[in-house]
Structure formats: structure tokens, C-alpha cells
Amino acid sequence: QQLQTAARDAVQRYLTELPLSGSLGVTLTLRQGDHLGRLDEVGASKNLRHFLNRLNSEVFGKRFKRFGRRLNVVPVLERSITGRLHYHLILETPFPEDPLRSDALIEQEWTQTRFGYRETHIDHQIDQGWVRYITKSTNASDAIDWDNFHWN
User: Fold this and answer.
1) What confidence score (pLDDT) does residue 1 get?
2) Long-range contacts of range 3-8, CB-CB < 8 Å, 24 or more positions apart?
3) Which of 88, 104, 99, 102 minimizes the C-alpha distance to 30?
4) How far apart are CA 122 and CA 107, in angstroms?
């Protein structure tokens, strides 16, 4: 328990060093399963990777595949009290000059994934309160998805 608390505190300190200007607070809900099976943490991570690949391809085109140009993202997978998996993200704004275009693209690309559910929430004004909220870790399974984390 003490180790978990210390690790969470260290991650929060690290994340508070990240510049949040130009970033969005995004909540992505997930379908909990389909005709092929039930969603788990591994499937959720794969689904988010697919979403981020789609999003980055749309934003950067060939620069994404050729040069690895990607949006910065801090993804946190969380399980609600009712057991539903969902993501909270700190996400670099895809089109800073056009927030409506950014929102539409995020929603469009998320719903095109296998488990992407139509309920999303995008906050254009985030601060350290968002960092504390997404790293609150109420369940043992709540964690940063380091496989999909990217920050330059």
C-alpha cells in the first residue's frame, strides 16, 4: 500500500512537470464487449493504440509513418465503480487553431475503433487538477497505459 502510494505520488510529480497548455482533457468510454468476447485491460490498450494510430495518421499524414511524428498523450485506464473500463487522457490538441475540428476528429476516430463508444468528453481547459483526477487510482487496476504513453 505504501509503495503504491509512493509510486502514484512520483507519477503525479512527474506529470505536473509536463506543459499542459495546448492539451486537452479527454474521456473515452469503451464498449465492454462484443460478439467476439469481453473487453479486458489488454484489449482496451490495443483499442486505444488503434485509435491513436488513426488519429495521428489523420493529423500528420505520411509524417506519422515515415518520421514517427505523433501527438503527445498521457493515457490512464480506469475501471469505474460499476466495473466499466474507460480512458482519461491528456492529449495534445490536434488542431490548436480549430477546436471544433479537433473535437470532431477525436470523436470520429474513436467511434471507428472496435470498442470505441459514442460517449466522449473533451475539456479544452485543463490544469493540474486534471492530472490529480486522472491519477487518483481508486482501484488496483487503474494505471497509466505506458504502452501508449508518448510525450516529447
Assistant:
1) 66
2) 4/137, 8/135, 8/137
3) 88
4) 9
